[in-house]
């Protein structure tokens, strides 16, 4: 499953727990409902139903797939707007092509991350490449929305492409877990993502029967989403399964363990761990726009309709339509 692998015996290891550490309790474990996004690709809404006080600064995170498409089936999103936040797309299997009206773009490949600061606003498209559409294949990934504080809502848009080779790789204290740090700091080791809102984002693979205990910034919130496998979370070893999100309470260390036996679809417990400095500002969210007030949302809608968030360029990428299929946009 994991696109980026490494021998944990050769990697830097994070510090083991000490007597002075404060273990974070588990406040809740929730199951992510299924839905569809864009042109109809399947997602799980990992943060649905969670009180925003526990999510801040995160708005939502969609678990895309895992799906094995037949030829002609892969789907993405057509051109659409954003304003007021950042999108982070992390791919495990498959590929996406990105283009935006501020000059950002490229191919997101397995193990890579796209970090797009929408800021003042832009249009963009995320769509599978021609080869994947024509031939089908595995597609699996995540898209996270990170809020921006009021002072940064109108930043100039920006794009970061983080390749799989740039991700910081670490091992747990006992070597039983591989950590892929995309952004933020883990025990003094910095991930490559450049963030406006302070966050930590990583993908952990925990071997069967192993325990991952890691330091966590005490001023951040802490969330753990299981994309595959089974295990336990927190000091009371509460059970958690694929498709579930754990919300942690205050403290400076988080712990999770992989079950001694995993199912046939995964060789380890695969977890997305994330946390950030809460912004603690009012949030007004409507579709692809995240502002502070309803009046700002209304202004954003007017700006979008007036073309102030960008115009689709003449050389725009468009969703590839498989041979023999009719383009749904054609009359």
UniProtKB/TrEMBL annotation:
Looking at the record, the residues that make up the Pirin N-terminal domain are 42-146
Pirin C-terminal domain sequence ranges: 202-309
CDD domains the UniProt entry points to:
cupin_pirin_C, cupin_pirin_N
Q: Which domain of life is it from?
A: Bacteria
InterPro entries recorded: Pirin, Pirin_C_dom, Pirin_N_dom, RmlC-like_jellyroll, RmlC_Cupin_sf
Instruction: Name the Gene3D superfamilies for this protein.
Output: Jelly Rolls
UniProt lists the family membership as follows:
Belongs to the pirin family.
Q: Tell me the protein's name.
A: Pirin family protein
Organism for this UniProt entry: Jatrophihabitans lederbergiae
């Amino acid at each position: 499953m994991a696109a980026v692998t490494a021998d944990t015996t050769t990697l830097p290891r994070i510090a083991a727990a000490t007597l002075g550490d404060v273990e974070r309790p588990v406040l809740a474990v929730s199951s992510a409902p299924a839905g569809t996004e864009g042109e109809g690709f399947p997602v799980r809404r990992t943060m649905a139903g969670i009180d925003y006080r526990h999510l801040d600064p995160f708005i939502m995170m969609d678990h895309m797939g895992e799906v094995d498409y037949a030829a002609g089936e892969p789907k993405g999103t057509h051109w659409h707007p954003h304003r007021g936040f950042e999108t982070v797309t992390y791919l495990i299997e498959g590929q996406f092509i990105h283009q935006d009206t501020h000059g950002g773009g490229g191919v997101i490949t397995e193990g890579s991350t796209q970090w797009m600061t929408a800021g003042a606003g832009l249009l963009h498209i995320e769509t599978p490449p021609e080869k994947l559409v024509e031939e089908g294949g595995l597609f699996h990934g995540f898209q996270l929305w990170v809020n921006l504080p009021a002072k940064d809502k109108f930043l100039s848009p920006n794009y970061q492409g983080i390749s799989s080779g740039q991700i910081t790789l670490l091992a747990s204290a006992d070597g039983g877990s591989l950590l892929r740090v995309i952004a933020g700091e883990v025990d003094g080791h910095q991930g490559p993502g450049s963030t406006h809102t302070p966050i930590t984002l990583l993908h952990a693979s925990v071997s069967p029967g192993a325990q991952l205990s890691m330091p966590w910034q005490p001023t951040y919130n802490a969330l753990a989403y299981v994309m595959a496998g089974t295990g336990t979370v927190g000091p009371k070893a509460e059970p958690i399964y694929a498709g579930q999100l754990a919300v942690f309470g205050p403290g400076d260390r988080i712990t999770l363990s992989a079950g001694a036996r995993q199912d046939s679809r995964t060789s380890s417990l695969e977890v997305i761990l994330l946390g950030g400095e809460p912004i603690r500002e009012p949030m007004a969210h409507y579709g692809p726009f995240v502002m502070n007030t309803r009046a700002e949302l209304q202004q954003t809608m007017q700006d979008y309709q007036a073309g102030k968030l960008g115009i689709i360029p003449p050389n725009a990428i468009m969703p590839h339509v498989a041979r023999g299929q009719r383009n749904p946009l054609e009359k």
